[in-house]
Design brief:
Belongs to the prokaryotic molybdopterin-containing oxidoreductase family. GO terms for molecular function: iron-sulfur cluster binding; metal ion binding; molybdopterin cofactor binding; oxidoreductase activity. It comes from Ketobacter alkanivorans. The protein has 776 residues and is of the alpha/beta class. Among the domains are: 140-336 and 600-614, Dimethylsulfoxide Reductase, domain 2; 623-771, Beta Barrel (Barwin-like endoglucanases), CATH 2.40.40.20. It contains 28 helices and 30 strands. The protein has a seven-stranded mixed beta sheet, with helices on one face. A six-stranded mixed beta sheet has the order 24-26-25-30-23-27. β28 (737-738) and β29 (743-744) form a beta hairpin. The chain binds ligand MGD (2 copies), iron/sulfur cluster and molybdenum atom (MO). Molybdenum atom (MO) binds at residues 107, 134, 138.
Length: 776
């Protein structure tokens, strides 16, 4: 009798990178458990890990290309599908210009090695400025801050939770999200260890979240007012003479400007608006500054709101002025085995902002992309540059972008749309062709992106558990094939692109990763260099840490000569160590690793300083909301994942999680009982969902999760349809943005709540009917 076998890998469903152990019998999965041998996650997993099996076995998951015909979807060959997609895109571009094709790259892109490796050439072959991604509904603010302050959009400081004495969590709920821009699997254990060594976790959030419940302190804060809180905390720092910039003092510019800037923002003044007590604000700042080490961490609630950029900037300033930047226990930088931030510094590709503006709303570009809040405008507004054809990959903008109804309307009138996705969902149903890639267990995995965000440096490769089904394609193969077909036919360019195509095809995702690992900072010692050259390298790195050559060395295996590390990483070595390899705790690396001119950190970038005027106005704005007016906030649930994990019975079973949380005082005023259906409306539209009354939320705040709303017809999501919920983005306003960047302000927008009893005359949208009548 053959024994069941064990397969080790990393779960790629969220940012936590948990090591898992899959027990299987000839490929039939018997169990998915945490891998105690994984150096980062040490056995932790969450309930979503088992959904990898559900996803693999899901009969609704697409495996072959589909073409939309008047008779319905028809299976077609890969060759025909790829040719058709390329020729439709090319024809539209030939007629209307390159920008007539738009693209949206969704969240799972960063969890997919193959996409990460092949999207760049694909984007360059498409040659369109109309690029959009989940970045602008998510982490754009911390990236822009990193670019302006550290000279590199990828240099996002990570809380060193394992060594800190104090952590402040602002607008983040890692107990549900498992951490974001902070890969810290087993967050709860890490918090327990922090508390056991006498440290503290403090949560500031409009809701008493799952994270707040394990914290030592929780403070309610009114949505969208975090930047004011930070100004007042900085005010206290100066007032109490607690500024301490330590080792980096000589590399900081603008401390006095910060001091002047915060003068008018006293704790007393901001208390009224934030809803926090002045004495609490003062005490928080003092305790943080006095802690031996501390890290201030903010995430979605601090980023996708009216002042998301300012909030993220001020968080970094606060960490810096309390001596917690780049110090153990503070916020630090990773050094991943494929060192993307290091490579960006070398290539000069460190980020861009406002190098051009979007056509319709004139929003600034960031990193070559426009804010997704204006995607639909670019499709719906006629004129030169209008998007007429659209590519989506790993995204579901109908449910994920603000004003999803408008996105839906825009998709319906496109000349052509193609989706690289293995589900026929609310977005891909509008495509003319769907190109489904293989599932996560059918290809290898290495986290190129998330290794930049971990609380400890590790490296791990997961081999495929299953051979891909016959005649299926990986994401990287789809993009490589499309790139080839889209390439320019000028003989010179053709030769270069054909060479690139053949190289990618031959190397595959594994081959490309192997090269990157070997050339990385923990890489194998290349044989090509002589001893003399190595000595030179060492000399350059030590004597001229700020020079370009040293930057190049920094991302190469030679830098280990200066650090005495002997990892010799390659794909082979990772395969020999399937639990993963520990590369140690985060190390101080500033100023050497800065991408800025002169290796200095500007605490007061002009772009942010100018926006203070807007914040000042917010301070003066009188807000007395009407009883039926609420500030909307989002919420994540550990058994859900954005818009796409609702087709797993194990994850969606149990009570309905798509509910609106509100405070008992508000419920009483409006005559709402627990479980009543309420109508939540904005100028965009309305949704109807059950009320859940709880003391765990601030008065005048309403909390609704996103990613639901699977009642639309024409999808193939048999489980999700039965647990449809409603999409909060059917009512979020696409004009509710952080005015500095155009990033969606999902959090803090005003909504009106009414009961069905009162609002009898409201004409409610019949989702099913509306969707089917307008389906393309
Ligand atoms: N289970 C699960 N895990 C996930 C995801 C998922 O959908 N489900 N999504 C993944 C993704 S894509 C991301 S980006 C991360 C997000 O990771 P997190 O940011 O940790 O997740 P959220 O639950 O959105 O947490 C945001 C918190 O901000 C609070 N908040 C809202 N508005 C404000 C405000 O104005 N100020 C303050 N201070 N707080 C506010 C909310 O109450 C909420 O507790 O999670 C990832 N992990
Ligand atoms: N109101 C509100 N809206 C929000 C948020 C919020 O907090 N509130 N959060 C925002 C955030 S942080 C994010 S990141 C976005 C996420 O929104 P999106 O970027 O739209 O991503 P998902 O909803 O995760 O959709 C993932 C899609 O990718 C497909 N997919 C999964 N794995 C793969 C793969 O390996 N390859 C390919 N080709 N496809 C794959 C799935 O089938 C699914 O269709 O939502 C944003 N929208
Ligand atoms: S927290 Fe859950 S979903 Fe995220 S990587 Fe770990 S097991 Fe996977
Ligand atoms: Mo996200």
């Amino acid at each position: 009798m053959p024994q069941p076998q064990k397969h080790l890998r990393t779960c790629n469903l969220c940012e936590a990178m948990c090591g898992i152990e899959i027990t299987h019998d000839q490929g039939h999965i018997l169990a998915i458990k945490g891998d105690p041998g994984d150096p980062l996650s040490k056995g932790h997993i969450c309930p979503k890990a088992v959904a990898l099996q559900d996803l693999h076995e899901d009969p609704d998951r697409l495996k072959y290309p589909l073409l939309k015909t008047p008779e319905g979807w028809e299976q077609i060959s890969w060759e025909n599908a790829l040719n058709e997609v390329a020729s439709r895109l090319r024809n539209i571009q030939a007629k209307h210009g390159n920008n007539a094709v738009g693209i949206y790259l969704g969240n799972p892109t960063i969890h997919n090695l193959g996409s990460m490796l092949t999207l760049m050439p694909f984007l360059s072959a498409l040659g369109t400025s109309n690029r959009f991604s989940a970045t602008s509904v998510d982490q754009l603010a911390p990236m822009l801050v990193a670019m302006k302050m550290f000279g590199n959009q990828l240099m996002i400081p990570i809380p060193d939770i394992d060594r800190t004495d104090m952590m402040i969590c602002l607008g983040a709920n890692p107990m549900a999200s498992n951490g974001s821009l902070m890969t810290a699997p087993g967050f709860k254990n890490r918090v327990k260890a922090l508390q056991d060594r006498g440290g503290k976790l403090i949560v500031i959030d409009p809701r008493l979240t799952e994270t707040a419940k394990i914290a030592d302190e929780h403070h309610f804060i009114r949505p969208g007012t975090d930047a004011l809180l930070l100004m007042a905390m900085l005010h206290t720092l100066f007032r109490q003479d607690l500024v301490d910039t330590g080792r980096l003092t000589n590399h900081l510019q603008g401390i006095n400007i910060v001091k002047n800037m915060v003068v008018g923002f006293t704790p007393q003044k901001v208390a009224r608006i934030t809803g926090m007590k002045a004495k609490d604000i003062r005490q928080l700042a003092i305790n943080f500054a006095k802690a031996p080490s501390a890290c201030f961490y903010g995430r979605m609630g601090a980023s996708t709101q009216e002042f998301g950029t300012l909030t993220n900037w001020l968080i970094t300033v606060f960490n810096t002025l309390t001596g917690n930047l780049d110090e153990p226990g503070g916020v630090m930088f990773t050094r991943p085995a494929v060192d993307l931030p290091g490579l960006a510094n070398v290539s000069g590709n460190t980020g861009s902002f406002n190098s051009r503006k979007s056509r319709v709303r004139k929003y600034p570009e960031f990193g070559g992309e426009f804010p997704a809040s204006t995607l639909a405008d670019e499709m719906l507004t006629p004129g030169k540059g209008q998007i007429r054809a659209f590519v989506t990959s790993a995204g579901n903008p109908v449910l994920s972008l603000p004003n999803g109804r408008k996105v839906e309307k825009a998709l319906q009138q496109l000349d052509f749309m193609v989706s690289v996705d293995f589900y026929l969902n609310e977005t891909t149903r509008h495509a003319h062709i769907i190109l489904p890639p293989t599932g996560p267990l059918e290809h290898g995995h290495y986290d190129l992106a998330l290794n930049m965000m971990t609380v400890r440096n590790t490296a791990k490769y997961s081999s495929a558990l299953y051979k891909p089904m016959p005649d299926t394609r990986h994401d990287w193969q789809i993009f490589n094939e499309l790139t080839r077909r889209l390439q320019s036919h000028s003989p010179l360019k053709w030769a270069a692109s054909e060479a690139q195509y053949l190289a990618i095809k031959k190397l595959g995702d594994e081959g490309m990763l192997d090269l990157a690992l070997k050339a990385g900072p923990y890489g194998r010692q290349p044989e090509a260099l002589s001893d003399m050259q190595k000595r030179m390298a060492r000399f350059m790195y030590k004597r001229f840490p700020a020079s370009g050559i040293s930057a190049l060395l920094d991302v190469s295996p030679y830098s280990r000569h200066t650090r005495g590390e002997q990892h010799n990483l390659s794909l082979k070595k990772l395969k020999q160590n399937p639990h993963g390899i520990d590369l140690g705790p985060l190390q101080p690396c500033l100023p050497e690793r800065l991408g800025t001119q002169g290796k200095s950190i500007n605490l007061v970038p002009k772009l942010f300083m100018k926006d203070i005027v807007r914040l000042q106005k917010r301070l003066e704005r009188k807000t007395k909301p009407a009883p039926d007016s609420f500030a909307l906030i989002g919420r994540r649930d550990v058994r859900s994942n954005n818009s796409w994990m609702h087709n797993s019975e194990r994850l969606v079973k149990g009570k309905n999680r798509c509910t609106a949380l509100l405070h008992p005082d508000d419920a009483k005023k409006l005559g709402i009982n627990n479980g009543d259906n309420i109508i939540v409306s904005t100028r965009i539209g309305e949704i109807e969902l059950p009320a859940q009354i709880t003391e765990e939320i601030m008065p005048s705040v309403l909390c609704v999760p996103h990613g639901w709303g699977h009642q639309r017809t024409g999808t193939q999501l048999s489980v999700a349809e039965k647990h449809a919920g409603v999409s909060v983005n059917d009512i979020t306003d696409d004009y509710s943005i952080d005015a500095l960047t155009g990033v969606a302000a999902f959090n803090g927008q005003q909504v009106t709540v009414s009961t069905i009893k009162i609002e009898k005359n409201v004409v409610r949208l019949n989702d099913k009917r509306l969707a089917s009548s307008s389906a393309s």
